[in-house]
Design goal:
Elements: E1 4-8, H1 13-24, E2 28-33, E3 39-40, H2 44-51, E4 56-59, H3 71-94, E5 101-107, H4 130-143, E6 151-157, E7 159-161, H5 167-175, H6 191-196, E8 210-211, E9 213-215, H7 216-228, E10 234-238, E11 244-245, H8 246-256, H9 267-277, H10 282-285, H11 293-298, H12 307-315, H13 317-329
Parallel strand pairs: 1-2, 1-4, 2-3, 4-5, 5-6, 6-10, 7-9
Antiparallel strand pairs: 8-11
Helix pairs in contact: 1-7, 2-3, 3-4, 8-12, 12-13
Length: 331
């Protein structure tokens, strides 16, 4: 299969991988972004031209959630998702040959904190709080309005594992001997954070909060799979079929990185550390238990269904050497 693909938000961790993968497989790729792209946000004519006659549009734009949820950052997290999604919708609506398929990023964080059962597309319960509100608004902007010639799929994506992004701090934690479980506990929350829905409530999970994940290669594989399945639209959970809990995650990381010692991190340590590195503890303390029911039923075969194999592919010296060799030869 080949054709024309438009990637909006191509400069990020996932976007770069998708652009490289599509081009490797013979697709013509056009990008939309803030700068250095073929079309830029705020240029409706340029965006419409980029979208005209495309086989596939992939929307990934949005400020990273790896930040402190200050008032300014909260506003930008929402604006960066809604504005770009609405610009894509307007551009598609203005084309004479609309794209066949538009897949847009969403997040598995839209589901509630789940320790009792997994969340699927059919039976999952949406949560509450700031992150969930962002996800709801994002999906609403994506699905609102009539685009009868364009099939739309929202990718409720779990934590994406690859050579970079979240693996960088995890690798450092393990190598510093801090690769034990992340333990919830009591912590004070200001009235402002409670009102804003950004304060994580202590649930005493003892490191058993669930960790749903997906390998970067499967993100690409799933998008390619969706191109072949005209019967799939709406929301799709993009997550590996075998989630783990936090204790198993950290133990597997220690095994793969050959680090026998792993001290636990208590809530107070996580809160102070998150302030220092400008992030939020919700990212490691919320229990995300999500299954890819629709993909599994449709017959998608995951390249990396199990965490151990996925982490070895990303973190072993053999994998790193291959990445370096490929990068060098491409220069």
């Amino acid at each position: 299969m080949s054709g024309t693909v438009v990637v909006a938000g191509a400069s990020g961790f996932i976007g770069r991988h998708l652009v490289d993968s599509f081009r490797r497989d013979g697709f013509t790729v056009t990008t939309i972004g803030r700068s250095g792209a073929d079309a830029v946000w705020g240029d409706p004519d340029g965006i419409r031209t980029a979208l005209e006659g495309a086989d596939l549009v992939v929307g990934l734009s949005g400020k990273s959630v790896n930040c402190r949820y200050t008032r300014a950052n909260r506003a930008e997290l929402l604006r960066s998702r809604l504005d770009t999604t609405l610009e894509l919708a307007a551009g598609i609506g203005a084309t004479t040959a609309p794209p066949k398929l538009w897949v847009n990023a969403s997040t598995a964080t839209i589901y509630r904190h789940a320790e009792d059962r997994p969340m699927t597309e059919a039976t999952g319960e949406l949560g509450e709080g700031f992150s969930v509100d962002i996800a709801r608004a994002w999906e609403s902007a994506f699905f609102d309005g009539a685009l009868p010639a364009t099939r739309r799929v929202a990718l409720r994506t779990s934590i994406v594992l690859g050579d970079g992004s979240v693996m960088v701090p995890y690798r450092w934690l393990v190598r510093l001997g801090l690769g034990g479980p992340q333990l919830d506990g009591t912590w004070f929350g200001t009235r402002a954070r409670r009102v804003a829905g950004t304060f994580h409530q202590n649930r005493r999970t003892r490191g058993r909060q669930r960790f749903s994940w997906v390998h970067l290669d499967d993100v690409y594989g799933i998008i390619r799979f969706l191109q072949t399945r005209d019967d799939l639209d709406g929301v799709v959970n993009v997550t590996a079929p075998n989630p783990v809990d936090n204790r198993e995650l950290m133990a597997t990381l220690r095994t793969v990185l050959r680090m026998p010692l792993g001290l636990p991190a208590f809530r107070w340590m996580l809160e102070l550390g998150s302030i220092l590195i400008r992030t939020e503890t919700e990212l490691v303390l919320k229990s995300r238990w999500v299954l890819p029911e629709r993909l599994t039923a449709a017959g998608y075969r995951f390249r990396h269904p199990d965490l151990d194999g996925a982490l070895r592919d990303i973190l072993t010296p053999e994998h790193t050497s291959t990445v370096v060799a490929n990068s060098t030869s491409a220069r």
